[in-house]
Amino acid sequence: MAKIEIIDMERKKVAEMEVDDRLLKAEEKSHLIYDVVRWQLAGKRSGTASTKERSAVSGGGKKPWKQKGTGRARAGHSRSPLWRGGGTIFGPRPRDYFYALPKKVREAGLISALSSKYQEERLVVLDRFRLEGIRTRPFQEALKKLGISSALIVIDEADEVLEKSARNVPGVQILQVRGLNVHDILRHEHLVFLRSSLEKVERNIMS
Asked: Under CATH, which number does the domain 2-42+100-206 receive?
């Protein structure tokens, strides 16, 4: 079992907790991390790019000139893709970029990302993160005491005070356990858990 220090808002050790080695001491598998991030980003693509083909471009109902005798190339339509203002050949059409990725691959990628943060000593576990009210400055001061500037903070349930206090702070994101994902872990320098949220992640993944 991996032993992790639990600290308070003053960065003082208040307790220790044991976490399954399979969650935090797994071998880093960069190819799985890549596969999961690629899958996540594909699902976020809007897929709204669209061009008009010949049939969708307005105008051009009349044959520009007669077939023979003009000395010019034959033309049957002024909205041909060969003409300025004409349609597009094989242009992009609205589509969905999402594709399925096996659950085991997704879980292995998440475990690999968590393990890499732990092994880089960039995983922090707090006993709690309490603020008196919805205010940005006290939240920033709390992070400064912890020596953290860029962080993904994982909470076990909705916390309006914490979420609203952090929403205007650059480089910081608050996420509930159910939304924990590889891409957001990699985007931030530190990964911060509450004790309760880390216990919940361990139960969800290891059970």
From this structure: 3.40.1370.10
